Amino acid sequence: MKKYENNDSQLVNEYKNGNEKAFEELVNRYKNKVFTTILLIVKDHYLAEDILQDTFIKAIHTIKSGKYNEQGKFLPWLGRIAHNLAIDYFRREKRYPITELDESDSYLERFTEQSPEALHIQKETHNRLRMLIQMLPEKQREVLIMRHYADMSFQEIAESTNVSVNTALGRMRYALINLRKQMTKNKLKYDLNNYPE
Amino acid sequence: MTSTTTQNELLHYLYDEQSNEKQAFLESTLLQDTSLLEEYQDFVTLKKNLGALERSPDKSIIDNILQYSQNFVG
After folding, report:
1. What's the complex ipTM?
2. What are the structural domain ranges in chain B?
């Protein structure tokens, strides 16, 4: 199979011209980031998969109908769609998620050659971090997800959430400070050496 | 005390949103401000851990999306 090394913009153009393999490359490149963006909002694996499908279907319609704006970057655009669909779901249903996130880190266990103790610490760290993200104030959590997983710039986040760039930056800063403080307070090791590059 | 502007620049730096000029300035600030450097190092670690939280959807979901795309005529 041909391996694509094109940038996103080239892939979108190829897809517009009917190359489905280009779209497959885009999907595989960003499915995890977009899925995680949604999952951290809705906290339900199956619902997140439904919204992921809706996100890509919206992208397919927009690109194939020639309405995709090439000025923006592909992932932040896709991330914004995903974020909006996840938020819309709660507005429509008027309810908030109660299902817990899947805590499994089994994929790490399969692909790393670390000692059981190091893996245990790593798993604990990730579980703790997942929980702490959910405990962040909503506005801070929103910016963190948009910046980190949806890859939106602080300028794009500010525009999307109707606040100034400084406010978006302030929320991100407090989110990171809160996470840092809580991770340190609980004396869980999150040393870089625990994680493979 | 580190100014808000510098703290904001630190976030732009962390997420690679800076011009080369501002990047060089922040790097020289980091060399002089140990508490800012410590904060930056912790943020880098956090960022790495946040990346490790990524999840994958089921393969069947991706197959559905690709199938939909193949059948959709714009």
Report:
1. 0.90
2. 4-71
